[in-house]
Request: fold
Amino acid sequence: MKELLKQLWTIPNVLSILRIVAVPFIMWCTLDPSTYITCGAYEFPIIGLVIMIAAASTDLVDGYIARKFNQGSQLGEMIDPLADKLMHCASVLSLVIIGYVHWAFIVILLAKEGTMVLGGIYMAGDSKNIKANYMGKVASATLSLAIVMSYFHAFWAEKVFYLDWIVLGIGLVLTYAAFFNYLKQAIGIIKGIMARKKAAGAGTADDQAVSDADASESAADGEEPEKKDNE
Reply:
């Protein structure tokens, strides 16, 4: 527990937590029309967008600090991507609710992000062996751009033929392309984890067999076998 708390209160992890804390505020300012700002003939949830951009910018800072001052941690490996995924999904979900984004986009995004979160939890401690690839960075950048554009959906829908949805679709395609690349690496890691668990289970069974054999020998020699602690 002490080690966990020590990891928690590093600057990179605190910034990741702040991104998670920002999620409900992003959703609130995106969903509540009273927070919208009028731009000409349109009203946009700009305050929600500003909060999202401000929170997202901390991702660049915490990554730099973690590398510069050697503050990377196993906890950070889990909560940093989780914070990013929560922000993306919460923003898109809010935009779906207010009718700025089609519901199919959030279903496709959640299917992928949910799979990655579950896989990351299962591979905790081993996920660092997955190498980031250029496609993943391009996909994340494209998806972020599409989400920003979608905050101005009323404009794009009228003026540029749903350009925000087109970019969002491209971002999701790139995201899945990167996902399948990660999946290839993850399958190898998962197989290794399963093999270690199987070997550990076999080792425990062998130890129990030796213990039982020793007890049988003692009984055959007329000695009373030692009682187990839980009897």
